[in-house]
Write a structure and sequence with these properties.
The complex is a heterodimer of chains A (378) and B (317). With 378 residues, chain A is mainly α. Helices cover 69% and strands 6% of the residues of chain A. Chain B has 317 residues and is of the alpha/beta class. The chains are: A mainly alpha (378), B alpha/beta (317).
Amino acid sequence: MGQGFRRMATIVRKEWLHIIRDPRTLALVIVMPVLMLILLGYAVANDVEDLPLAVADLSRTDASRTLLEKFSASGFYLVTHVAQSEDEILAMLDAGTVKAGIYIPEDFGRNISTGGVGTIQFYIDGSNPTVAQTAQLAAETVSQATSQQILIQRLERSGAGLTISLPIDTHILYLYNPDMRRMNFMIPGLVAVILQVQTLLLTAFAIVREREQGTFEQLIVTPVRSWELILGKILPFVLVAFLNVAMTVGAGAFLFGVKVAGSIALLAGLSLVFLLSSLGLGVLISTISRTQMQAMYMASFIMIPSFILAGLLFPRENMPWLAYYSGYLLPVTYFLEVVRGIILKGADFFVLWNWIWPMAVFSIVVFFASVMMFHKRL
Amino acid sequence: MSAENAVEAVQLTRLFGDFTAVDQVGFEIPRGEIFGLLGPNGAGKTTTIRMLCGILKPTSGEARVMGFDVARQAEDVKQRIGYMSQKFALYNDLTVYENLDFYANLYGVKRETFKPRLAELIDMAGLRGHEKQRTADLSGAWRQRLALACAIVHEPPMLFLDEPTAGVDPISRREFWEMIYTLAGQGVSVLATTHYMDEAEFCNVIGMMYNARLIALNDPDSLKEAMEGVLLEVDCDQPGAAEPVLQALPEVTDVAAHGVSLHVLVEVETAEHAIRQALVQNGIDPRRIERVLPSLEDVFVSLVDKENRLRLRAEIE
């Protein structure tokens, strides 16, 4: 037992030296999570706010100015350009300098003040459907709210001293993600991505590299046992994974304000359970690949569908039934629910139990099956 | 099992699917002796070594190394052997000392003897002053010596070397064999594969492998003496043209190029006359024909030739 522990510790130490000395591994360990976070945080996250808006106000009346103020105040739009004609707005949309444009004709103010209908023309760049949809919704909401206000003013004026309020006032309250911010959805997902991708790739590479170099054959003739070898190989990556999760959760809190609502200890503990499945898959890939290139392809083959099916990128609710139920075969599907539950809702162990047990079962089965298949052999 | 033998292999066979890599190979290596396994690439040398080291399981037959069965007692075998594979399996991103330290820990070298043992190995390999150098920066010869040091860190009584001198310069090769001699002098048994025939001369016993089979097994001198026929060295002005002419003679068993001259194997020495006649008739000047002692290379070529002829005959029948 003492010798076995010594052999395992020796492998751990050597593996650690490989990690800190190989610039590629080190880059994968440090740069990848940070890069993903920045990409998702600043580039991909298409929360619709401050869309550049071009304005052509030919009416120049109180009514038109009120309407434009409402657009600015909504936060969805930022007036960046002032135009004089419809053509000018279209040119700016063509050039991509603005994402939306509003044209208020000369007769707008007059029509409204005489009790008629003021028509405005709104333009939206529809090339990104997500942005366009939100922009359209925002434009409609702003216009309707302004219309209502004008309507009330008209009634109040005619009714002399009468105070009028709208019959229905709907209050909508978003729970758990009050600002509907994409980062709140993405950060927990990123924890899952890192635990899956990082760990799986590093583990698979660490073993396959030895096969490629021929050092694996040398290890086989030493008294080291399969269990000592495999534990020695994966323990450093468990540490790396935890470091990365801490980095991601920390950066999420400080840079993007996504605080962990639930227990950090529970998050760490369940991450460890999920980690077993990634480590297991890494070991499995290394058992069936001869070269790092093969391992890479094999890993993409597993990871890309799993992220799509697990609902990391697109909500699972909209998937066809086959894809929807396939998601239940992947540990990462359950883990995503668990992480989102803990970080966003502050859910505890018992609330999450329905997600935890299948995840644990899958992870443990994958891990032990993979490790059993891994033999100290060529 | 004799306690005198470090290795005993009996009818050792390994199949890879339909392909027979090693076919009923049997030999013994007495303790403290150097055994050379010769043969072309693909003859089955590496597979034989891998079975003896417990890396591959034999399909049939059995082998005992230091008294332990390689198939059933692989872990006992592993404690008692050192193995140096073809590729000098070292970790390039680790330093000289870290490589040694790694293997010493895996083999469980005792803490009391750890430091002196590593110092001793560094001196033996001539790597003193380079302990902190990355292995990637070492020359081929140094890597080879470090690989040897790693293989013997636990002082194994049996050492397996798979083409230990591939890609190393001649002077370093000689120095390496001196180290092997020193180890053998200390009682270590050695099995080395090689295709350098000059290195085979260093061995006490030679096994020649060809097409998965052991086709000869003896000490170098006996192998040379046992060679059938007489070897003549023929020096002429057109060796290229002479070869097919001689090959066609009924007296000649085999012709092989040997430097600028030809080595011609004949059944009786009197064939010299026929050779001279044939060359002159074809306008080739036979400058010198004399009887020479066969080298191991000649022995090997002749054995392979005989083997091929036997096989052909068997196929025809």
